[in-house]
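Re: your question about DUF2200 domain-containing protein

S., sorry for the slow reply, the queue was backed up all week. Below is exactly what I fed in.
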Amino acid sequence: MAKHRIDTMAFSGVYPHYITKAEKKGRSKEEVDQIIFWLTGYDENALERILSEKTNFETFFDEAPQLNPNVSKITGVICGHRIENIEDPLMKKVRYLDKLIDELAKGKSMDKILRK
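Result:
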């Protein structure tokens, strides 16, 4: 199967856009990081390493300590695609993260975003 462009894209290239999107709506970098930690199981030190090493999305998700068991609760449409119907496992994980960042930018509470 052909790789998507996002597979080989450096996470560090997209991460600042997540922060910018959140900050434009009055949210913080810390909240973006909290979402990433919740979704992937990474911590602050691991995230710094990923950013400095320019780790691509495929490796970012492949090496994630543990995808949160509540990811199945992340539903809806992102970029015109219903998350539940995305078949490519990596693309689904990328869209989970996109959806959570969108919810942050839309003003949802962290408890709702983190499916508590």
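Residues 69 and 94 are 16 Å apart (CA to CA). The chain has a mean pLDDT of 94.

Happy to talk it through on Thursday.
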